[in-house]
Amino acid sequence: MIRVLLADDQHLVRSGFRVILETEDDIEVVGEAADGLTAVTRAAELHPDVILMDVEMPGVDGLEATRRITAVTGGDGPAVLILTTFDRDDYLFEALRAGASGFLLKTGTPEALIDAVHVLSRGDALLDPQLTRRVISTFARPGETAPPKKADLGELTPRENEVLVLLAGGCTNAEIAERLFLGEATVKTHVSRVLAKLGLRDRVQAVVFAYEHGVVAPGPSGG
């Protein structure tokens, strides 16, 4: 069962999310919060697997709440999915820096929300597809400072390098397992080792790292 915490200052929004999510047999909404500070407290009390986090809330906003939750739990805590009506680059990039594992616009479909919860619960990361190129173009500009890392690419085994390339391509653990003819448990182990060796927090940072360091190259710009 996937345990979900809802954090949004609008009661109707939380109620709508609850109705959507609880149509799924494997999702349980275990709590709600109307502001960021309460979200931090409830996350510590309830130990959810996924937190749906609004950005603009009274007092402590969703970005600061995400930062506090991930600072305490690191990679062992809940995955935070930022949900907002505002298609703003500053929100997107600050959410990633704060440790969010996903970012979706509230204009998406109920199916997209359900799928996002499932993706994050498996330890994968997810960005609204229309935002991916903006992340890459911002973080992968030549000459900008690379993110901190504990080791360089030379520390990766050939298999781990293959996993990093597929991560950068947006593959899920299941897709990596299929392409490399591995079990999903083995893939999870490889992903964890890649993140640890490179000093990265999550899969989103791995994508950014791969583009910044030439492991993969951005494709031609689309219209």
What would you note in describing this structure?
Helix 2 (36-46) runs parallel beside helix 3, helix 7 (158-168) packs across helix 9 (184-198) and helix 7 (158-168) packs across helix 10. The chain has ten helices and six strands, in the order βαβαβαβαβαβααααα. The chain starts with a strand and ends in an 11-residue tail after the last helix. With 223 residues, it is of the alpha/beta class. It is 50% helix and 13% strand. It has a six-stranded parallel sheet with strand order 2-1-3-4-5-6, sandwiched between helices. The model is unreliable at 142-150 (pLDDT under 50). It has two domains: 2-132, Response regulator (Rossmann fold, 3-Layer(aba) Sandwich), CATH 3.40.50; 140-212, Winged helix-like DNA-binding domain superfamily/Winged helix DNA-binding domain (Arc Repressor Mutant, subunit A), CATH 1.10.10.
Number of strands: 6
Low-confidence stretches: 142-150
Q: From the helix content, strand content and strand pairing, which structural class follows? A: alpha/beta
Specify the number of helices: 10
| Name of the level-1 CATH class of the largest domain | Alpha Beta
Strand content range: 5-15%
Quaternary state of this entry equals: single chain
CATH superfamily of the largest domain: Response regulator
Inertia-based shape: globular
Largest sheet: 6 strands, parallel
CATH topology of the largest domain, which one? Answer: Rossmann fold
Count the domains.
2
Helix content: 40-55%
Order of helices and strands: EHEHEHEHEHEHHHHH
Please state the CA-atom Rg, rounded to the nearest Å: 17 Å
**Average of per-residue pLDDT values:** 84
Strand order, main sheet: write it out.
2-1-3-4-5-6
State the separation between the terminal residues, measured CA to CA.
Answer: 41 Å
